[in-house]
Amino acid sequence: MDATDADAPRPRVREMTESDIDAVAAVRVGGWRYAYAGLMPQSYLDGLSVAAYAEQRRAAFAEPAGAVTNLVAEGPDGAVVGWAAFGPAKGTDPEGTAPDEGELYALYARPDVIGTGVGRALLTEVLRRAPYPAVRLWVLEGNARARRFYERAGFRPDGRVLVDESDGFPVPEVRYRRAASAGH
């Protein structure tokens, strides 16, 4: 923890509402551009649209409530500065994934608040609320900052790697896992 972490007030974490969609879209797009610079083609990152992602989120909110939980973190001024989404583990995995595991689908903080405890507050709340014996997540193989963050929180690579090419370029990802009830 650096000095800014110790001095910063703990962010308030709450469930996301429909009125948070535009702020969450800005957090997600800004988070992608910051976290994945040099790991994904810059032209792809530059082409991400806050408005387009907000429309996708609005469509998701219009659907009946499912098993996905969306959380936001608020800064001292009440502005949304972070977002996390989790729910049941996606896909099937014959290589050791328990069918009742959870998955952290997304965790992003505005680039200007990285290192202030926003990500830690969101992750702590995800693990507190997750009704699963274990939680897994996928992280870009080259994203050293995120990998350190998750490792400090007790996540460990479980040996699974995939290369996602759904956006037209290879994105190698490593799967991490930890018990949801372990000390956080």
SSE topology:
Layout: H1 3-7, E1 12-15, H2 21-35, H3 42-46, H4 50-62, E2 69-74, E3 80-88, E4 102-109, H5 118-129, E5 134-140, H6 144-152, E6 156-164, E7 171-179
Parallel strand pairs: 4-5
Antiparallel strand pairs: 1-2, 2-3, 3-4, 5-7, 6-7
Helix pairs in contact: 2-4
List the keywords.
single chain; seven-stranded mixed sheet; disordered N terminus; 32% helix; 184 residues; alpha+beta; 7 strands
Number of strands: 7
Beta-strand percent range: 25-35%
Alpha-carbon distance between the termini?
A: 15 Å
Biggest sheet record: 7 strands, mixed
Rg, rounded, reads 16 Å
Mean pLDDT: 89
Short description:
The chain is built from six helices and seven strands, in the order H-E-H-H-H-E-E-E-H-E-H-E-E.
